[in-house]
Here is the input.
Amino acid sequence: MIPKPLFEHPEDVLCQWLEWRQTGDTALAVVTSTEGGSVRAPGAMMAISHDGKRAGYVSGGCIDEDVTLHAVGAICSGNALSLRYGKGSPFKDLPLPCGGAIEIAIFPQADQFAIKRCLDELTARKPSTLELKADSVCTEHTYFPKLRVRIAGRGADALALWRFCKAVGFPTELAIPGSDPAPLEDSQSNASWLYLSTPSSLPERQDDPWTAFILMFHDLEWEVPLLQQALNGPAFYIGAVGSQLAQQKRRKALRDAGANTDEIERIRGPVGLIPSLREASMLAVSTLAEIVEAYEISKLPQFNKTGLALLAAGLSTRFEDGDKLLAEINGKPLIEHSATILSDEKVAMRLGVVGSSDHERRRILSNLGWSTVNNYQPELGLGRSIAAAVKEIDANPDAEAAIILLADMPNIPKSHLLDMRRAMTPDIEAVITRVDDFVCPPAIFSRSLFPKLMDLTSDKGARHIFQSLAKTCIVDLGAEWAQDVDRIEDIAELKCG
Here is the structure.
């Protein structure tokens, strides 16, 4: 029997808050800040009913009861509270064993509309920011949809992983290829099981950036279409069990079926934090741990402190039919395809560099939410455009890095930019793309390099700056994604959406 999951995800806590709110006043307690080794992060929440029932938690158990008592009192008084526990707290009888401090806001009359909006967005699998204010107490936190797991497989390994995922409250689906009867002890709890009839008739699945997909069996007839289906979506994790030899066979089968190298590289395998585990339960725990690690990484801010610089001031001298950036591909100008990269991401700024007479380019970029800056001498080369862009980005105090993009390279996948941004760790100064043996944009440069970039004046671009650095990283990209447009025949080879 799978135990009932804890109320711990904001979606669960807010749902319970709304349910209790229908029958009486209900408070919401939210961790607003922590110091030291607190076991909960800012944003952790707990719903408290007027009669003291609670859902969720704000600590490891050392202060939840006291927070509940204060919340019930706040419901009676109607006044919001701000509490501090641990170091610097007036509650000397409640020291935190971790030695840190935690601050908690209690809202006895929280904004029901704001809570319902947040819950609706999370239920719709969208991130949501919840902002609450009452008197002088306020909080604002961004929450992400629950980790969702899709398992395809048969036998003990797949079933063990399904059980663990369900036990911790993750929405989980188990797709069983062919006819593999369920064990009798699970016959009452298999509502989330899906029996697949043939590899050529897979039911449609709508993965999102918070979905993990994993193969927990070996059968190339099924594996290729199942993996192709997952690779066509934005799942943050795609994995497959098996030895190195099994992975090699799987990769070859995918290549033979038309998958490109960049796609195949998304597949993790052998899976799990601990390799070569043989017991189904241990393999399930190890795999789930790897999935959770990838999920937490996927929630980290990726581009909110990064400025995008789209270089679009080129003269199109080799293009035989006017302005190459205005040439239509699938009904849209080339520059529009390039400018939609990361359109669903929050970034520090979007800045397009155009020539002073490029009025149509500027109009298209402005309509897509980009600011623009002029390169008054585009004939002098790429360096001038980089310098003009970085000068504007440097003026934005929120920008800790800049991504240099070329407007005539419209096929750069978002996954590549994500890989580059994740490679930009605090000890890395710059990350650049490599196609075959050639390095090229996109490239990311840390703020410490902005002065050097602003000094560029030639057509060398920033490659020589990158080559002079000691702390860099290179991320490979398949040649099919790095296509650029110089001549009119290049248009026919592009596969923009």
Residues 33 and 42 are 5 Å apart (CA to CA). The chain has a mean pLDDT of 87. The first strand starts at residue 26 and ends at 35. The chain has 15 helices and 22 strands.
